[in-house]
Structure formats: C-alpha cells, structure tokens
Amino acid sequence: MIPLGNDTTSDQAAAQNSHEAFSLPNTQQFLLHSEARERPYRIFVATPTQEAPPLGFPVIYLLDANALFGTIVEAMRVQGRRPEKTGVYPAIIVGIGYPTDEPFDDSRYYDFTMPTSDEVLQALPVRNKEHVWPKVGGAEEFRAFIEQELKPRIERDYPIDTNAQALFGHSLGGLFVLQTLLTKPHSFQSYVAGSPSIHWNKELLRQQEEQFPSLLQQNTAKIDLLITVGELEGSHPSGMNSNAREFFDRFSLLSKEELHAAYHEFEGEGHVSVLPALVSRMLRFVLRR
C-alpha cells in the first residue's frame, strides 16, 4: 500500500501553487482618469457567464467598491445560479473605487458630499474631538464623472441595458445615492441607499425635496428606491435611523406610479455588520422580475 501524501511530484506542484493570488472569476479592473480630478478612479467590473439578452444586462453601479465589490460579486455568483428561487438574475456589476488596497479612501468624503459649511462639519459626531475632516463638497463633479465618463465607457465595452441601471451606496455613499435621486432622478431606474448619512447635508436635502416631484413628472418611467438601516444604528448620535425613516415616510406619499419606495431595518446589525445582509437585499430588490 502506498502511504497517503507520498506523491512527491503532486506535493511540489501544490507547493508551487500555494501562494498564487486569488481572483474572482469573470472580473476585471482598470484605472479611469477624470477630467476634474488629478487622481484616477479604480473601476471594477464583473460580468455574467450567460449570453447577454437582446436588450443587454441590467447594471449595478456601486460606490466604495474597494470594500464591497467582492461581497457583491460572490453574492451574485452564488445566488444567481437559481434565479427562479433567489430572485437574483444575471447583471453586470460596476464598482467605483480608488487606487488603494485599503477598503476605504478619504477621497470618498469629497466625492459623496455636497458643499458643507464648517459649522455643520464641526457639529458632526466624531470619536476624536480634534478630528480634521478631509476635503468635502465634490458630489456634483463625481456625478458628472459617472454620467459623462464612466457610463459611456461601460456602455461601449459591455452589453448594458440602459433602461435597467441601479446605483448603490452605503453610509456617505447612501447620502450620495439620495442626492442623485433628488437632483438627477432619471439617471438610474433603481436607487439603494444603505444607512445614508443624511445628517451631513440634511437641510440641503430638504430643499432639494421641494423640487423633486416636478422632476419625477418629467419622465414616465417609474423609479424604485430602497432605504435600509441596521437596528443598532438607532442609538447613533447622528440620528441615522430616524433621519432615514423620515425620508422614507415622506417619499412613500408620492405617486406609486412614479416612485416605488421601500424601507428595511436589519435586526441586530450595526453600521458595518449590516453590509452582507444589505447586499443580498439590494440584489433582490434591484434584479427582481
């Protein structure tokens, strides 16, 4: 009898392969420079293995891709195997990130926020009272980058259904999602704002809400909106959960023919632990048929 593990050739081959970098199937990344920024964005793309339908695949644009891209791709890959049971159908995932190996980059403070006064910044809840905020207020530039530079590149290189586009962000990314909905509602057909940091630009959002109904009426296509929070975020001094709920309550009063709004609070989850559950809920919400 030959002892187990006595195959020297197999052992050597395994040793040679033991340190190869892991990669996600059917994904790629590239740097995309913006005319408005000196530093490029790191763009992540995941494509389905299936043949594209005649109109192309739905597409999900996600923020903070350095932190969330892998989670979303794996959730899509596993749940998409049985879409008739999971409600997760094939889609292209486009992640917008930064040229760093860290999950988050300070550039997000600039990209995801509207201009914010020093008074508001000083009043934001932080653990360290001497905290110095990075540069903020570049949301309009970032929106222009997505619309004028990123989307055309994606639509050129991938089979995209331009009538089935979603925008997903969490925390400050969730704030950006709501800002985009209020100012450019027909840029996407679905919006998912997880734990949105409404307290950053709350007064501005309320002002923008006044013009939102008229913007909705300029296009006949219905828009879907999902707002979520984690239960444990309710104790945060920012008023995260109450702000999100108030925002949803006001939007749920709008015509269901123009805007379908949904709200969910994840039991027992905090601001960061909520992310895996949020990803699954987001995929089902955006890709349901």
Give start-end ranges of low-pLDDT stretches: 1-8
| Content of β-strand | 15-25%
Strand order of the largest sheet: 1-2-4-3-5-6-7-8
Shape, please?
A: globular
Count all strands and give the number.
Answer: 8
Average of per-residue pLDDT values: 89
Radius of gyration: 21 Å
Assign the structural class, choosing from mainly alpha, mainly beta, alpha/beta, alpha+beta, or little secondary structure: alpha/beta
Q: How can the largest sheet be summarized?
A: 8 strands, mixed
Helix coverage percent = 25-40%
Number of helices: 10
Instruction: Give the oligomeric state.
Output: single chain
Q: Could you spell the SSE succession in H and E letters?
A: HEEEHHEHHHEHEHEHEH
Distance between the termini: 57 Å
Structural features, described:
The chain is α/β, with parallel strands linked by helices and 289 residues long. The protein is built from ten helices and eight strands. It has an eight-stranded mixed sheet, with helices on both faces. The longest helix is centred in the middle third of the chain and has 19 residues, at 139-157. The chain is globular, with a radius of gyration of 21 Å.
List keywords for this structure.
289 residues, 8-stranded mixed sheet, 10 helices, 8 strands, globular
